[in-house]
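Here is one record:
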Amino acid sequence: MARPKDSASSVTPATLTLEKVGAVAVVTFDDPANKVNTLHSRLMPEFEALLTQIQGDPSYKGVVVLSGKDSCFVAGADIEELSTAPDAAAIEKLSHKGQALFAKLEAFPLPVVAAIHGACLGGGLELALACRYRIATTASCTVLGLPEVMLGLLPGAGGTQRLPRLIGVQAAVQMMLAGNSLRPEKAYRMGLVDYLTIPEGLRAVAIQAALDLASQKLHPKRKKPKGLMGLLEKYPMGQNLILNKARSMVQQKTKGLYPAPFAIIEVLRTGIQDGTRLGFAKESREFAQLSQTSVSKSLISLYYGQNDLKKNRYGTPQHKATKLAVLGGGLMGSGIALVSIQKNFHVRLKDLNQESIGNSKKYIWKELDQKRKRRSLSECEANQIFSRFSTQLDFHKFDTVDVVIEAVFEDLTLKHRVLQEVEANTPDTCIFASNTSALPISQIASVSKRPQNVVGMHYFSPVHKMPLLEVVVTEQTSDATAAIAVDVGIRQGKTVIVVKDGPGFYTTRILAPFMDEAALLCQEGMAFDELDTVMQRFGYPVGPITLMDEVGLDVAQHVAEELKTAFGERVSSQDPAALQDLLSKKCLGRKSGKGFYLYDTPSLWKKVLCRKKGKAINPLAVQALQKKRRGEAPKDPAQVTARMAMRMVNEAVYCLQEGILSRPLDGDIGAVFGLGFPPIHGGPFRYLDTMGISKAVDQLHRLRDQYGARFEPAPLLVEMGTSGKRFY
């Protein structure tokens, strides 16, 4: 039982506070040990005892559940508790306990109102679903969702059973499979939330709602699917059709590599067809089994990594940058400007010609307008964000900016000139950040008067969609400069890794041998689309040939030349003549309409040039590679994935060995969120641990004996294999 504090209130240990406001019990979640509220087994007895106490007091007419945190309702279950559970049986028991608690909440004799402000995710939303009425604030920090699928799991405290009953099967399955967070306005439209209010009025509105529910003045209105979807959802055959369609789409999108989406669909099916009692039982069982999969363990390790990187390793900068300048109005520069103004930075974009500036303005407004059309931004908010963006042809008012981010072409002479011009027009405190994918930052800084202020900030295209930022520090970069660069990246919403300077840094350096092996396989006769398909089945979001077209063949050639000079054939061993041949024919990739594939090709030509459904293969690319034909590509897809994966992970170990990376975690996060390394494998270092270091060394030795010295294992890897060490 909760210990009485005074005549008006009582307090349970640490987390839950009970306050009596008239005839309403106001229960406040506020975990003093954490910045956010999470659900864990230690909390369940407290909550249950508190409900028993409220039920035993006849003066109460209703209950309000809210949070004492500034921007968090309940952020979900305690992932650490799941990670440290000894086995599936222990996790299934945790799930049963959560289900039992929320069942008691759902059946509570008094109306319970969830007053939601801030993040209401995972177990937090499952808590809200068990309440009779849900009120949410319209604050920007308020989001609702069931993101468990992102961790290779499913909702394990009744969410799979309550959500479809509330918003319909179609909406529920889409929400759980996507794992996306919903803004309160959308949650209201779909019936997930019953009422919206401003943060200042939440408490009073929720208390009144509890009283009105108790007196039956207020009756929750449940929105039902309409039209054809509403008809389908009425009958088992239609419900099955919806779930079967969802299963087919999941198979197509994930290639069957992620078990959680399939489990979600089948748990939903059980609850709909066989009743919630069996649905709850299957939910707990599947939740426990998923928690033991290598996929879930990998995804949870990435979750921990992302959380760890939300902290600035250099500490809070003494001076917070608020005004940025971006040099270059191409896609990269425009993307950097876009993510910056959306996070409250004021941005000046400079380019040499008005046409480029005009294109940049169009690009940024188009992205904001799309958000407006999707109702994730109001027109007023879109205009307010755009007002933080200005453009110019000169260095006017550059003396007021804190950081200049250079995004011009990958040419050292050009970058030298730009750096010198910036230093002549900015104060001594201004940071110069180069967005380069391969040129060493120390070489760029060699002409600087303030080398301590020069840093690399390597963004990934498209900037507004790719989550990673690679901050590159030289021996001369000051900690104060690095702190500001990392802080800017974090505030832009990026996951930031810090690496030491060197050719290709980390991400480009490990991508180069991966692309090199792809080119070699194609020179051995492997079809472009076949190679892409094999690597997608391994878990990559796109295949290496498609990726090369997206990056640009001219960029790929430039990077290959730079890194071959630095590292030799271990990183780049294929004959560059084929790529040069393609470049001479204006085959630059998607940006020129043709690369290894053809883009914007007439449908008739697609039928002629495609071996099956997919992109049209460029015959010029096939001819260029056939001129340099070498050997025979392996028939076994496992041999193909081994060659591709081991080139990348082996180079990642070299980066750790040489101090480019300070720890494996940064390498895993960088590869997954910057290059699309399969999340199911957790990153290069997690992949090696899962495989077994000694087995990885043996595989590299076999590949070296068959294909050459480019597969020579990194000395660190050999040493770890001999001593039985692991990266984690």
Summary: The longest strand covers residues 16-21. The chain has three domains: 3-292, 323-502, 508-659+692-723.
